[in-house]
Amino acid sequence: MFIDASVLAAMMTDENDAREFATRMQADTVRMTSPSTVAQAAIHVAAMLDLSFIDAGDAIRTFLTLVNIQLLATPPRAAFLALEAYECFGKGRHPADLDLDDCMAYACARYYRQPLLAKGDRFGHTDIDMA
Question: Does the keyword Hydrolase apply (predicted)?
Fold first, then answer.
């Protein structure tokens, strides 16, 4: 499964649905995310927990190791998959209302042929398989 920044941030800040995400992650042995997803999650975690961006990034790096989430390179093709996603599901164009970060997560999940684990229902309005 490809893990979105919303899930990483929810788990790192112990949001109400953090345990549900942990349970869903346990069901899949393939867990991955991307550098831009980690950066986005770290920015959110830093704001929520009043940490520096570097400290939040270090905490997420440790978390990825502990729960066995691979940090994979964003493939060049993802740029074009993200543009296609934005064309179909982007803000102001579709009920999914995806922003660029959402489209990149969508693109990486699509490229790696993995279901997407994300918070909320915005991706449920797309054609991506959900974890």
Answer: yes
